[in-house]
Amino acid sequence: MDKHQLVEIANTAMPFGKYKGRMLIDLPEEYLLWFARKNEFPAGKLGDLMQLTLAIKIEGLQGLVTPLKRSE
Question: One Pfam annotation, family name (predicted)?
Answer without folding.
Answer: QSregVF_b
